Amino acid sequence: MTNTWQDIKNANVVVVMGGNAAEAHPCGFKWVIEAKIENNAKLVVVDPRFTRTASVADMYAPIRPGTDIAFLNGVIRYLLEKDAIQHDYVRAFTNASFIVKAGFGFEGGLFTGYDEATHSYDKSSWEYDFDDQGFAKIDDSWQDPRCVINLLRKHVDRYTPEMVSRICGTPQDKFLQVCELFATTAAPGKALTSLFALGWTQHSVGAQNIRTMAMVQLLLGNIGVAGGGMNALRGHSNIQGLTDVGLLSNQMPGYLSLPRDTEATFQDYMSTRQFKPLRPGQTSYYQNYRKFLVSFQKAFFGAAAQADNDWAYDWLPKLDIPLYDIIKAFEMMANGEMNGYICQGFNPLQAFPDKGKIRRALGKLKFLVTMDPLDTETSRFWENFGPQNPSDPASIQTEVFQLPTTCFAEEDGSLVNSARWLQWHWKAADAPAEAKSDIWIMAGLFHRLREMYRKDGGAFPDPILNLTWDYTNPTEPDPADLAKDMNGRALADLKDATGTVTTPAGKLLDGFAQLRDDGATASGCWIFSGCYTEQGNQMARRDATDPREQGIAPNWAWAWPANRRILYNRASADLEGKAWNPDKPIIEWNGSRWVGIDVPDYGPTTKPADGVGPFIMNAEGVGRLFARDQMVEGPFPEHYEPLESPTENVLHPKVSSNPAARVFADDRAAFGTAPDFPYVATTYRLTEHFHFWTKHALINAILQPEEFIEIGEALAKEKGIEQGGWVRLASKRGFVVCKAYVTKRIRPLMVDGKPTHVIGVPIHWGFTGQARKGYGANTLTPSVGDANTQTPEFKAFLVNVEKAGTPVA
Amino acid sequence: MNLSRRGFIKLTGATLAGSSLGALGFGFAGCALAASVRPFKLTATSETRNTCTYCSVACGILIYSLGDRAKNAKSDIIHIEGDPDHPVNRGTLCPKGSALLDIVHAPTRLKFPQYRAPGSSEFKQVSWDFALDRIATLMKQDRDANFIAKNAAGSTVNRWLTTGMLAASASSSETSYLTWKVVRSLGMVVFDNQARV
After folding, report:
1. Which residues of A, range 339-378, sit inside 8 Å of B by Cβ?
2. Nearest residue to A635 (alpha-carbon basis) of A624, A651, A619, A623
3. pLDDT classification of B37: cutoffs 50, 70, 90
């Protein structure tokens, strides 16, 4: 989230598209109701189903799963056509005026530079026109046909209301009503907030779904302001933290990136991470990258990381491909290319696409380790549970270790919420019997490995033997010690320009501004620097004071970066530094510095007249309507059909689905087509359940005891399916036998002149826990991910449904 | 955090309930009942501030456990409710958060390490030493056999592809940091978390 949960109350328009907050985030959704009651806000819901969120909306528009970009490109077209954009904001704070170099183009569904053989782009033409000094050329008058705003206008011109309706199945009048409401927030004092979740991410075009809405928000001047922003309502309690700490194949803590094979030396690595400003005078904060990286290496390897060994650069593993994500991991496993796998609090057998493939792949491992408080399906993949898990144990040679861990109530530590707050929590009781913390288990494994390498040697032991481990309790490091590690400390006396010591050696740092690239500081996660200082554990703060009741609560816990609650908040003020919305200012220029209720996301004394852009992490200083080379499938968003789609892509039938999607051959062979699987399925969550955990909790198992699907009345009638009757739902990959809930909430959509039925598949069941045994929705889902992030396409795939008899037992 | 909000409410609330019930004509017996029943459940508990384990609204919760945290006292969690001071949830919880007690005490909570041998159709309880020794040995064997120090072009890459890890999504940032350290020091790159699902 760019903003906070409470800040939603400041919105004039709330758009829930790509999510169902009332069901999935009920206690956060109360702030939408607050906005409606206290701020007279309008709630818009765009969703294939009439959801719980839609039931309290002022406006609901249905949409076919997987067509959000067509809808939003249509919105952009409308805003530009009606000139309903916030001009001063767009001119000063976005790259609308930037001139794109000659050679960039788009034709027949493809941008320039496509290579059919590799399903990827040479992105060199997706770039600005630069002057002799290396600065991007701009045209403030927007006359140049190659400036971004004009190229965007041309790109979205095809997305007329007729075309949107043809692709999305949304009635034209509904679509236009939504456009009109969006447009009202182009006024400088008005704000629209976008609340989204997996409904946008779980598509082969997931990242572009979100990007398209971010562009809408930039055009409307809604980023950085109170009641605005792009607000990803994240899932698990610390998934934001796991992302921040970089537990992803290509990431390092604080969004630093792991080296690639092509970056043989530290100099090679740094050369692509200089982030030279692309316009005069811009901040381009990542120019400090070297400080973050060197401080990280000092935190990891201590004295063994020195200037003369390039800060132990070679001790970091290097990647030969962009990602070793989960889909790739299970492909490798299925091909017999992996021997061991460790699942920490994660249940991939239920949670990942094409359950049959996951089960087969796990059976090819030499060993599987699970660490979990609960008895997960993954840890029992080898066991025969009947049709819901038809395994033959005798034929599976995998050694399986099921390790019991503590749960949230049995440990100290911090979790990062959706609004980037690091909230410390405290242990209330010991874990049952012999269950141990993940920290104890990881430390136990590490010590055993390190001892063996010390004693017997082995492959490249250096990073193992030199890893810092100076914790008070080495067998189970105190979470406070680990938090201090991430915060960082001075390794030598830090001095100011006059030579006065500002931070003595050994002291904790106040924030990342103190980090150095000469080895004098250590910090394990630079964006968390400031969370645990000499003033104590900032994450443990519990002062709910909220200046002007504006939803900031700056002294409750601690937010990264630098306790900043609203990202890009410089954009909340106009070019002179006065708030666009004088009733809800965040920071303003008082003549000598930026002051207000939040920490400025900007130089605190940078004058408005200096023309420094508010998007300080971007080398341009402005928000990007044209993404340059940041996305794999194009600098502008384009509608591509899901990999399994009921219709051709009416814009460009030859390029139907995402041309840059990575699809493995066996997965492609397992895609179904509309003649065999004529209905669109989409998976989702219920308010009574959380993934596959709560079926272990008695109350939740009673509330929603068994697997079911939701099906519209028209389709049910056509197929002779009764309310509560048994059905068999099948995709090319597998089938589920469960009950049908026949509902008015899903209605057929007219897509390209044909009625299209959508079937809803809640995900929560499996074969362990207290609820009734179920197959799990991912028995059906296709193994293909978003082309940028590899998030699986769970929200749009093809199925068939038939009435079934009552299963035996 | 150790300030007992319950204790405070108990004192003021009991008086209030007593007087209003009295005004409604319940008399002395009703007063005594109201004053004793409600505070009784949590009167001997310890209060701990925590965060709901499910979604990332991150509702504040208060956990009440029996036992006073003395060295020989064993804490037992008997009640969990929303933290009324929390600026986001303001004391409310959803159907999942309201049932947190049932997940803490779920009958399928794991209590001992278990091991399943190749081809076996059952788990067997094992010691932690057996489990961790065996896992570490398997990891080292695999790493030593398959570690890639240099790629085909001869440049240093120091990666290990044949064992992978899926990290958690509800464990603390401190746990995740330690996990990162261990995983990357071994050169592991098949590494992901639940951010995507």
Report:
1. 339-346, 348, 351-352, 366-367, 369, 371-375
2. A624
3. low
Helices and strands in chain B: count of H runs, count of E runs: 5, 9
pLDDT of residue B43: 82
Query: Which domains occur in chain B, in start order?
Result: 5-104 (2.20.25.90), 110-140 (no CATH), 147-197 (no CATH)
A596: left (phi over 0), alpha (psi -120 to 50) or beta: left
Identify the H or E element spanning A46: strand A42-46
* Contact pairs from chain A to chain B, CB under 8 Å: 485
- Tell me which H or E stretch contains B163: strand B163-166
Asked if A254 and A527 touch (Cβ cutoff 8 Å), the reply is: yes
Hey, what domains does chain A have and what are their CATH numbers? 6-232 (3.40.228.10), 326-452 (3.40.50.740), 665-803 (2.40.40.20)
A619/A288 Cα distance (integer angstroms): 12
Would you tell me which residues 1-60 of chain B have a C-beta closer than 8 angstroms to some C-beta of chain A? 1, 46, 48-60
B168 interfaces chain A, CB cutoff of 8 Å: yes
What tokens does A443 get?
A: 């430390």
What whole-number distance in Å separates Cα of residue A181 and Cα of residue A228? Answer: 14
Question: Can you give the length of chain A in residues?
Answer: 809
Q: Which two tokens stand for residue A688?
A: 């009574």
- Chain A residue with minimum CA distance to B101: A697
A96 pLDDT more than 70: yes
Q: Tell me the three state secondary structure of residue A425.
A: strand
% pLDDT > 90, chain B: 72
The pLDDT assigned to B2 comes to 45
Short-list A555, A531, A559, A528, CA closest to A542 = A555
Q: Helices (H) and strands (E) in chain A — how many of each?
A: 21, 33
Residue in B89, B96, B128 to test binding to A, most A beta-carbons within 10 Å: B96
Res. A690: pLDDT tops 80: yes
Q: Give A754-787 as a 3 state SS string.
A: EEECEEEEECCCCCCCCCCCCCCHHHCCCCCECC
pLDDT category, B39, cuts 50, 70, 90?
A: low
Summarize pLDDT for A407-430 with one digit per residue, the tens: 999 999 999 999 999 999 999 999
Task: Give me the pLDDT at residue B9, please.
Answer: 44
Residues 681-740 of A with CB under 8 A from B: 687-690, 693-694, 696-700, 703
On chain A, the residues whose CB falls within 8 A of the CB of B76 are 429
Give A354's DSSP letter: -
Distances (CA, A) of A651 to A642, A643, B61: 14, 16, 51
pLDDT band of A768, cuts 50, 70, 90: very high
Residue A45 has a pLDDT of: 98
Distance (Å, whole) CA A315 – CA A338: 22
Give ipTM to 2 decimals: 0.97
Beta strand A399-404 with A679-684: parallel, antiparallel or unpaired? unpaired
- Cβ contact, residue pair A486, B173, below 8 Å: yes
Residues A287 and A275: beta-carbon distance below 8 Å: yes
pLDDT value of residue A161: 98
Report percent pLDDT > 90 for chain A.
Answer: 100
Cα(A628)–Cα(B5) distance, rounded to whole angstroms? 54
Question: What's the pLDDT at A385?
Answer: 97
Task: Indicate whether A285 pLDDT > 70.
Answer: yes
B16 band by pLDDT with thresholds 50, 70 and 90: very low
| Residue B31, pLDDT above cutoff 90 | no
Q: How far is B5 from chain A (nearest CA, A)?
A: 14
Q: What is the number of alpha carbons within 13 Å of residue A614 lying toward its C-beta?
A: 30
Band (pLDDT 50/70/90 cuts) for residue B14 is very low
Contacting A residues, span 393-412, partner chain B, CB-CB under 8 Å: 393-405, 407-409, 411-412
